[in-house]
Amino acid sequence: MQDKEVMIPAVERAVKCAAFALDKKALDVKVLEIKNISSIADYLVLATGRSDRQVQAMADSVKQGLKPIDKAIDTEGYDEGRWVVVDFGDVIVHLFQEDVRKIYNLDDLWSRAPQIEIPEEYLWEHKEK
């Protein structure tokens, strides 16, 4: 596969995942750098949706958007749409419904992880008010 020869750094792919989730009106999106804290991945992307359909749409957007540069190793929880995990190896994307995100509280679990800034151009929440 030729397009795999040009590998985009994990941090850029993580930010792209955030952007693709934001494209589907995701809320409270965070990109956390965990490579110095854990061996499970280099980056976590956390995002919230308001319904199972929105969470599924966010997962579809992330997978389709990254398809030209990276393929998901695994996807879990898609059918229920309450907590979908899309695993790209060095980037893991967690897409939650609000109540599920509060219960599992990954934000606190990974509170020591530095947060990567998401470029303003991808953010929608404060633009529509």
Automatic annotation (TrEMBL):
Its main location: cytoplasm. The keyword Signal does not apply. It is found in: Cytoplasm. It comes from the Bacteria. Signal peptide: none annotated. Keywords: Cytoplasm, Repressor, Translation regulation. Pfam families: RsfS. Functions as a ribosomal silencing factor. Interacts with ribosomal protein uL14 (rplN), blocking formation of intersubunit bridge B8. Prevents association of the 30S and 50S ribosomal subunits and the formation of functional ribosomes, thus repressing translation. HAMAP family: Iojap_RsfS. NCBIfam families: rsfS_iojap_ybeB (TIGR00090). Belongs to the Iojap/RsfS family. Interacts with ribosomal protein uL14 (rplN). This is Ribosomal silencing factor RsfS. The lineage of its organism: Bacteria, Pseudomonadati, Thermodesulfobacteriota, Desulfuromonadia, Geobacterales. The gene is rsfS.
